[in-house]
Amino acid sequence: MMEFLRARLHEDETAARALKPGKNQDVARLRDRVLADVEVKRRLMDWVEELPRRAKDNGGRVLWQRVAGDLYASYSRDLRSPVIYELVAAYADHPDFHPEWEPIELVDQYEPGKDEPSVRARGRAV
After folding, report:
1. What InterPro entries does the entry give (predicted)?
2. To which H or E segment does residue 48 belong?
């Protein structure tokens, strides 16, 4: 999924850089907005991968520190990975998009007689 997203961002960046605004300032603003959007998405991808990458760089640590680091990185990745699903969803019309990449939509459902709403997921399984 990350490779797919990187490839789409590269395509977006290439297309934006190919725009020649000339006298049309709207085209220039659109190009700049797309380039900024690509940069932000790349930073979000780095943020999602940051702690798992740090956990792999655990040279010199004792065993319990490596295990704790791996557990923390895994937990962090689980919490941060929905960001990637949301970013990838923008490319759902691409032929290489996989249906299992659809983001989870949490929907509150109120049932009569219950004080708390029940939550179900639409899209891929939780």
Report:
1. DUF6221
2. helix 25-56
